[in-house]
Design goal:
Layout: H1 7-40, H2 45-68, H3 77-105, H4 111-141, E1 146-148, E2 154-158, H5 171-177
Antiparallel strand pairs: 1-2
Length: about 180
């Protein structure tokens, strides 16, 4: 009977926790830049948000690629970076639309209700994208290829983040050897 915390589920949970940590770092980076641009430099909010999102996307991509999914080789601009940036800007567009709709809908309410509605719309838009982006990063952009057996066929499991298999070693030998 497989346990709830199988190695593959633990690996996904570990990636999800790390992904959440990276999101917190990139969100803090973007919010600091947004605050500086709007509050100190008097930039228009929409352009400040575009700049802040652009800058926050760089550490997000690299931390996700290197720390969450342990990709240390050369990055692929077409297969990894471009889709990641597009997803980040899809979040910007989605959140801008959601915030605009919430703002328009609650413009005649109290400031507290209005601000809360705008913030909830922003969090909901990014929350939906956050889940979609994790799945796409995990399954497409940074996926780990399956381990091959000596006969050249796939063993059926992939190596977890941080693990390696030497040439000629099958996944089952790898799992029991503690390497």
């Amino acid at each position: 009977m497989p346990g709830f915390a199988s190695p593959s589920r633990r690996a996904v949970l570990r990636r999800l926790i790390r992904y959440g940590s990276v999101s917190a770092i990139s969100t803090a980076t973007s919010l600091i830049i947004l605050g500086i641009l709007v509050g100190l430099a008097s930039f228009p909010a929409i352009w400040a948000n575009v700049i802040a999102t652009s800058i926050g996307t760089v550490p997000s991509f690299e931390l996700n690629r290197r720390w969450v999914w342990a990709q240390s080789g050369r990055r692929s601009l077409l297969r990894q970076a471009a889709p990641f940036v597009l997803l980040s800007f899809a979040g910007l567009i989605l959140s801008t639309i959601a915030v605009h709709l919430a703002s328009t809908t609650t413009s005649d309410t109290t400031r507290l209700v209005h601000a809360a509605a705008v913030e909830m719309a922003n969090v909901a838009a990014y929350g939906i994208l956050w889940i979609i982006q994790f799945v796409l990063c995990d399954r497409v952009l940074f996926r780990t290829p399956p381990v091959r057996s000596d006969e050249g066929g796939a063993v059926g499991q992939s190596v977890s983040v941080g693990q390696s298999v030497s040439v000629g070693q099958t996944f089952s030998e790898h799992s029991t050897s503690g390497v």
